Amino acid sequence: MPLRFLFGELMNAMKLLIVLQHKFELWNAPPWFVENLRQEFPQIDIVHLATYERVEEHLRDAEVVITWSLRPEQFAVAKKLRWIHSPAAAVHQLMFPQLVDSEVMVTNARDVHAPVVAEHVMALLFALAKKIPEAVRLQDQHIWGKDKLKPRELSGATIGLLGLGSIGREVAKRASALGMRVIAVRKNPEKGNFEGVERVLPSSELDRMLAESDYVVIAAPRTRETEKIFDVHRLTKLKPGACLINVSRGALVDGVALADALRKQTVAGAALDVFDEEPLRPDSPLWDIQNVLITPHTAAVTDKLWVRHYALVHENLARYLAGRPLLGLVDKQKGY
Questions:
Q1: Is residue 329 part of a domain?
Q2: What predicted TM-score, i.e. pTM, was given to this entire model?
Q3: Within its chain, how far is the Cα of 89 from the centroid?
Q4: So what's the pLDDT on residue 5?
Q5: How many Cα atoms within 13 Å fall on the side-chain side of residue 269?
Q6: Among this protein's residues, is 222 annotated catalytic?
Q7: Which one of 53, 278, 281, 324 is the catalytic residue?
Q8: Catalytic: 35?
Q9: Domain assignment of residue 331, yes or no
């Protein structure tokens, strides 16, 4: 990684290209984000594009790019590119062979999103356990439904985590603080101990975890191995009365199979923040299933989002200029 200063003289200014176009307004960088970076790093040529319209022109000499995604043909013209930062946690859209096989570093914002998503998971856990959606439906009908609701305690319940990355670890800390028993499955269970986690199982023992868990939280990245991991067969392995929470990616769950299992109540309930197709179609059967709680991919939404993004980008730019390791570095071979 190059040092940007040599013998006290400023080298040719590196170029940072920020191109973040998204239909959801909050995902677009606010003006202050770019201006503050320019003030803090005057030695960097910072170009901000609100659309991808002229992206190839600026990619030709960009050394660092902050973006949601690049197409292979766009990557091909970026001859000086050394580092891509994604403001998302998931980077599967960047994992095309040309980029994976290159020396270009990829970082993501998993540590920006993890605490916020973990808070959302806790809200969903409470909502499912305390039957909040059912209570709201009864309220809409002006029904005093005390005899219709059967709330459960979270303390003493078992929560199973698929994935112990940044989100999974944050959920584990919060769940254990509530007195929940936390077990987890991850690809490499031997990688150390984790706060609040009683036991870590290998991926081959996912069914065992499901059989023990009152609540299952999907917090794993989208890879070839995890796509549709919750299929018809796997859903039958959940403990009777268990609820499923997905804050990862919709592609990890077979939506048709889940809808069927929820209707038959072989899965007691689900709280879903992500879907295979977004926005969720108006004719999706999930909307009308009584034991489903739907949030519109808002687990990572917070009024402090860009403050948190700025802190990470600022720190990593300082590290990059000094030749130090970057935070949130993605293992491109693994895809996360």
A1: no
A2: 0.91
A3: 5
A4: 40
A5: 23
A6: no
A7: 278
A8: no
A9: no
